[in-house]
Design goal:
The complex is a heterodimer of chains A (about 210) and B (about 240). Chain A is α/β, with parallel strands linked by helices and about 210 residues long. Chain A contains nine helices and five strands. Chain A folds into two domains: about 80 residues, Methyltransferase, Methionine Synthase (B12-binding Domains), Chain A, domain 1 (Orthogonal Bundle), CATH 1.10.1240.10; about 120 residues, 3-Layer(aba) Sandwich (Rossmann fold), CATH 3.40.50. The relative contact order of chain A is 0.12. Chain B starts with a strand and ends with a helix. In chain B, the strands form two sheets. Chain B has a five-stranded antiparallel β-sheet, sandwiched between helices. A two-stranded antiparallel sheet of chain B has the order 5-6. The model of chain B has no long low-confidence stretch (mean pLDDT about 95). Chain B contains nine helices and seven strands; from the N terminus they run βαααβααβααβαβββα. The chains are: A alpha/beta (about 210), B alpha+beta (about 240). At the A-B interface, helix 4 and helix 5 of A face helix 3, helix 6 and helix 7 of B.
């Protein structure tokens, strides 16, 4: 079995130590970093994502695989920087102003990184202007916001307005999510997309990046 | 009647099914060893880090109206508004399992220990739900010990932020109950800290008063319909 297949299988099985070891071996064998990344790591996370959507595996399996992916990425990072390999897109993420819930946002961030995105996580209780400033500073093409309280949802509209005021509405797309948020709400405030859960959020972000 | 109490770990130990449900794992699913290990580790962390406290205080209909009507931001009709009117007895309650467990969850996410962080979050949520259920049982027992007829009485808790009862109701609840006494605070967005806390009103009355249809204004936007399972369990019992 080739090393990239072994790497991929180890990631799918959530074995972070083996993924780190096999990534180092793949590097030592001279396999290009991009190939290790795309085939061994991201490709494996795509398989994990598909099996999760098909209800073959559960959230803990996805998160164990994500930890394994991060272990592989840590080994690969210096080579990726050297080779100028960039992410497939940059996403600024945060829980909106007044909201301290962050589990859902964390899961979205983990799965976006697993899909090959660079994620700038602003944490929670993030003022509206910070989302836009950060997106512009980092050259992010997507802002993702989470709210778990009806009282904090209005802050999402303020971020949409900030993006419009900065005249970057076409360049920076907005996706929203969280328990009280809905597709209708997203449309009402002028957001570009709504993520029902972490897996669907990743799919929507991929579409938004594709649109850009 | 008012009670402030510290609780043991035994009082909050969550069931495997309740925890696994929030992890998206159906009941009676046979999971592999790594998931069982995560669950066991999360329970161990809960036993060490949880600091469970509760406060329950019987209130008058007037005070519960003050809490319910809050800042006047409720939907025009709510199931809870109708239920309160038919209650025999009412109490305010708040429960928490403390801040350290929330910090541990954050720390685990920061250190890429995602699976354990997520499992611990599910364990902690299920634990605080058990504490809330215990508050319901306590109020029932207190009414019985005070000599009120309790045959056919059911006590259930209802929290602001659900079913059209605006979350700003928390402010009035905090004014009257003062859960700060057990270390719970409320921020300007009506978010409780520690996060693993629950508060609301305990309603004691015949089980029929706790049943309602899904024809209220807030029902059309509700994604969870958690009330249906609760009502089914109530009617089956």
């Amino acid at each position: 079995m080739g090393i990239l297949t072994q790497l991929s299988n180890s990631l799918i099985n959530g074995n972070d130590e083996k993924v780190a070891l096999l990534t180092r071996q793949a590097i030592d064998e001279g396999i290009p970093a991009k190939q290790i990344l795309d085939t061994g790591l991201i490709g494996a996370m795509d398989t994990v994502g598909a099996r999760f959507k098909a209800h073959d595996i559960f959230l803990p399996d996805v998160l164990l695989a994500a930890k394994a992916m991060y272990a592989g990425m840590d080994e690969l990072k210096p080579l990726m920087i050297e080779a100028g390999i960039s992410s497939i897109g940059k996403v600024v993420l945060g829980s909106v102003q007044g909201d301290l819930h962050d589990i859902g946002k964390n899961l979205v961030g983990i799965m976006l990184k697993g899909a090959g995105f660079e994620v700038i996580d602003l944490g929670n209780d993030v003022p509206p202007s910070c989302f836009v400033e950060s997106a512009m500073e980092h050259g992010a093409s997507v802002i993702g916001m989470s709210a778990l309280l009806t009282t904090t949802m209005p802050a999402m509209k303020r971020v949409v307005e900030c993006v419009q005021e900065e005249q970057v509405a076409g360049q920076i797309k907005i996706i929203v999510g969280g328990a009280p948020v809905s597709e209708d709400f997203a449309r009402e405030i002028g957001a570009d997309a709504y993520g029902f859960d972490a897996a669907s959020a990743v799919d929507r972000v991929k579409s938004l990046i594709g649109d850009n | 009647m008012i009670q402030i109490k510290a609780h043991s770990y035994d009082m909050i130990t969550p069931s495997r099914d309740a925890v696994f449900k929030t992890q998206g794992i159906p009941p009676d699913t046979v999971v592999h060893d790594e998931i069982e290990t995560l669950y066991t580790k999360a329970l161990a962390l809960l036993s060490v880090l949880a600091a469970p406290f509760s406060i329950v205080s019987e209130v008058s209909e007037f005070d519960s109206d003050v809490v319910y009507y809050g800042e006047g931001r409720n939907e025009s009709r709510t199931p809870i508004g109708d239920i309160f009117k038919r209650a025999d007895h009412l109490a305010l309650f708040a429960v928490t399992i403390g801040q350290p467990i929330s910090r541990e969850i954050q720390d685990r996410f920061q250190s890429n220990d995602f699976a354990l962080a997520s499992m611990l979050d599910s364990v902690a949520s299920a634990a605080v739900d058990r504490l809330a259920a215990n508050a319901e049982r306590f109020f029932f027992k207190a009414l019985s010990e005070e000599g009120y007829p309790v045959t056919g009485t059911v006590v259930l808790g209802y929290s602001p932020g659900y079913c059209g009862w605006h979350i700003s109701g928390q402010r009035r609840l905090f004014d009257i109950l003062r859960p700060q006494q057990i270390g719970i605070s409320l921020n300007d967005s009506f978010l409780m800290q520690p996060m693993k806390s629950v508060s609301g009103v305990l309603v004691a009355g015949p089980k029929e008063i706790h049943t309602f249809p899904t024809s209220y204004p807030s029902c059309s936007q509700c994604e969870t319909r958690g009330c249906r399972e609760r009502i089914r369990t109530l009617m089956a019992g």
